[in-house]
Amino acid sequence: MLEDKTPQRTQLSQLGEFGLIDHLTKNFDVKNASTLKSIGDDAAVLDFGTKKAVVSTDLLIEGVHFDLAYMPLRHLGYKAVVVNLSDICAMNAKPTQITVSVAVSNRFPLEALEELFDGITLAAKVYNIDVIGGDTTSSQKGLIISITAIGEANEDEIVYRNGAKEGDLLIVTGDLGSAYMGLQVLEREKQVFQVNPNNQPDLDAYTYLIERQLKPEARTDIRELLEQLNVKPTSMIDVSDGLSSEILHICKQSKVGCNLYEEKIPVDPQFINVCEEFNIDSTTIAINGGEDYELLFTIALDDFDKIKANPNFTVVGHIVKEEESSHLITRANTKIPLKARGWNALEE
Amino acid sequence: MLEDKTPQRTQLSQLGEFGLIDHLTKNFDVKNASTLKSIGDDAAVLDFGTKKAVVSTDLLIEGVHFDLAYMPLRHLGYKAVVVNLSDICAMNAKPTQITVSVAVSNRFPLEALEELFDGITLAAKVYNIDVIGGDTTSSQKGLIISITAIGEANEDEIVYRNGAKEGDLLIVTGDLGSAYMGLQVLEREKQVFQVNPNNQPDLDAYTYLIERQLKPEARTDIRELLEQLNVKPTSMIDVSDGLSSEILHICKQSKVGCNLYEEKIPVDPQFINVCEEFNIDSTTIAINGGEDYELLFTIALDDFDKIKANPNFTVVGHIVKEEESSHLITRANTKIPLKARGWNALEE
Predict the structure, then answer these.
(1) Taking CB atoms and an 8 Å cutoff, what residues of chain B touch A13?
(2) Torsion angle of alpha carbons B181, B183, B185, B187, nearest 10°?
(3) B47/B131 Cα distance (integer angstroms)
(4) Which amino acids of A are annotated as binding site, given as ranges?
(5) Which domains does chain B have, with CATH numbers?
(6) DSSP assignment, residue A18?
(7) What's the rounded Cα separation, in Å, for the pair A160 and A52?
(8) What residues in A contact B154, CB-CB < 8 Å?
(9) Among A2, A111, A185, B272, which one is most buried in terms of CB atoms within 10 A?
(10) Burial bucket for residue B157 (CB in 10 Å: 0-12, 13-18, 19+)
């Protein structure tokens, strides 16, 4: 019998981003005492003494993660920092430092890089963090940004993804879906512009959505707020890939299920209007649209009184046993299995 | 009078890599008490308690930093880690963790990424470091690797670039130039292969050079060795861009000059042979060729007796007053100003 000698080739898209990471990192075991938490959360946790260091990193590629047609470089620089700080916030840590590496093709003049760094500098100022290093090099195509963020926290303050317990409340900060609809508005304007470059867009009805897309903020305020309220979440994650995807991360790592209530999901009125204009189901977007950079966390039921009056927090569901799995409870009171349809960079 | 409204466009190559970094980072001031040392050395130094954390990051781009035509993915993964660990060694710190972000275009199957991660995993094992996080995404073109390395050290152990003093000895580990000549051999073989793909290269005469290029090692042993010898360098850097470039970094930051002796520069016999074969001046390559990942450091003259018998170290020169500037003293005893002709990613 003849052997098939064709080397096996597996398409990356078959695995998906999370599957790929799991697959490639399964051989990494922890060897150093200073590594308290390795791969598998929003950030790693390192022990160098009294305070713990929290480390997270992100790679942003032009044409995959951003489109310079409608993303001004200054905003891009700001957002690239915010995205990483958000991961540090998701550990209930305080962001303190970042490294920034940038690769650009020859088509970028210095002035373009200056704009990018203006945005990075502004974010460093606003969030009181230090840019401690990086690398600048050339790329064969487009702009590539790699940022690593470092934060600090006392060991007992750090919140992981794996601590949610049956009966805990599921809470989200701010509102959801607006960043995704902001992107839809910008994509539409780009197409209009390509047809008629003289067309002056009137974006007044979309300012909030566009700002959520182009200039998101990291919820560094939540750590302080929770401390004041004397609440420590049992688990936490940031909403970068979409609410359903993030809920499922918490449930998987905490070995629990959850009920998410459609009617509770916080959205902005402008978001609802634009969903109607685009004829898109707003709940689908609020659940699956990414890039909001809000925080999703669980708290013990006993802590409900401490947070219930606070406008920053919305209770959107509760944790159930693992066997009960994770569901969306619709306004019509039907129970739909929750699926991760979050943004997947490898499906592009 | 008419104003020139053309926006100013400055070519990045006008500034060079170091000029660009200086220019873009001049606005970054340090705000956090935990930032002991920010931009400007091989790595940043952070204070989270008893031990200090040392952080360095690198971005590697296909077609700029490596060529997959002769760089096997396994070796690339290994080298990408080593390059970063070398920066940590250059701070006299112990590498402990890395984050790894990878972006790939669709042409890469999973098996290719597995090979890359095999090399990363091997390096993590050899150097006893933890891979604590990262990011996997798609690129528009080619393979992009971003690695951040973290190390630890007691504050009094850390060696910066700025401590060299007049009269100090300039010392280099291992030998220099071989990695660069290994690259020349591989480039030549690639061209031969393109003309005649059936040609089987005989690379026996070049094994050391090729290994220096494809599988460099980080000098994690030097920290221990210096500790045993009870020598603390006054300044240190790793030789990634070429000896002359690194010497000038130390001199600039230490506000000193130096005399480098041509006859003292350590090179391998294979390197000399291949320079003759290629009809290239070996000193030019030993001084300007990059990617050796050896360590360059200065010690007080009083410490000379402690290191003089050690085969790992070669005294190549000494530090002089800043006004005397930096020179190469040739075998013919002529004094030539030392210039940084190191590898510049932005000139490609």
Answers:
(1) 106
(2) -140
(3) 21
(4) 42, 56-58, 65, 87, 134-135, 161, 238, 240-241, 291, 343
(5) 12-157 (3.30.1330.10), 169-347 (3.90.650.10)
(6) H
(7) 14
(8) none
(9) A185
(10) middle
Residues of chain A with Cβ-Cβ distance to B32 below 8 Å are 96-97, 128-130
H helix intervals, chain A: 12-25, 73-89, 110-126, 178-195, 207-214, 220-228, 243-254, 269-277, 282-288, 304-307
How far are the Cα atoms of A68, B49, B106 from residue B112, in angstroms, in the given order? 30, 41, 11
Select the more confidently predicted residue: B297 or B35: B297
Strands lying side by side in the sheet with B144-153: B35-37, B44-47, B52-61, B144-153, B94-104, B130-138
Q: Residue B59: which of A28, A62, A103 has the nearest Cβ? A: A103
Contact yes or no for A314/A243 (Cβ under 8 A): no
B18, B34, B105, B348: which to substitute to probe chain A, counting the most A Cβ within 10 Å?
A: B34
Q: What is the mean pLDDT of residues A250-276?
A: 96
CB < 8 Å & 24+ apart, contacts of B331-335: B331/B262, B331/B263, B335/B259
Q: How far is B110 from chain A (nearest CA, A)?
A: 5
**Phi first, then psi: what are they for B241, rounded to 5°?**
-100, 0
- Phi, psi dihedrals of residue B33, rounded to the nearest 5°: -60, -25
- Give dist(CA A287, CA A195) in Å, integer: 32
Residue written as tokens 């979050």?
A342
- Minimum distance, in Å, between the CA of residue B304 and any CA atom of chain A: 33
Q: How far apart are CA B140 and CA A101, in angstroms?
A: 18
| Chain A: closest CA distance from residue B89 (Å) | 16
Contact B144, A144 (CB under 8 A): yes
CA distance B223 to B227: 6
Q: Name chain A contacts of B88, Cβ cutoff 8 Å.
A: none
Identity of the amino acid at A89: C
pLDDT beyond 50 at A348: no
- Give the whole-angstrom CA distance, residue A57 versus residue A147: 6
Q: What is the DSSP letter of B62?
A: B
At A11, is the secondary structure helix, strand, or coil?
Answer: coil
CA distance B45 to B64: 28
CA-CA-CA-CA dihedral for A108, A114, A117, A123, to nearest 10: -130
Identity of the amino acid at B318: H
Element (H or E) spanning A146, and its range?
strand A144-153
Q: What average pLDDT does this structure show over B212-238?
A: 96
Instruction: Round to whole Å and give the CA distance between A345 and A62.
Output: 12
Comparing CB atoms, the residue among B21, B30, B117 nearest residue A130 is: B30
Instruction: Tell the residue number behind the tokens 């130390």, with chain if given.
Output: B250
Closest of B63, B102, B96 to residue B80, by C-alpha: B102
Give tens-digit pLDDT for A46-80. Answer: 777 777 888 888 899 999 999 998 899 999 999 99
Q: Which residue of A has its CA nearest to B134?
A: A57
Q: Which residue has the higher pLDDT, B305 or B202?
A: B305
Contact B152, B220 (CB under 8 A): no
Both tokens assigned to A105: 């093709």
**Which residues of chain A lie closer than 8 angstroms to B149, CB-CB?**
none
The torsion angles phi and psi of A337, rounded to 5 degrees, stand at -55, 135
Question: What is the complex's ipTM, to 2 decimals?
Answer: 0.85
- Residue B107 has a pLDDT of 82
Q: Which of B201, B295, B209, B199 is nearest to B246 (CA)?
A: B295
Q: For chain A, give percent helix, strand, coil, nearest 5.
A: 40, 25, 35
Nearest to A35 among B17, B106, B130 (CB): B130
Residue A45 · residue A91 · CB < 8 Å = yes
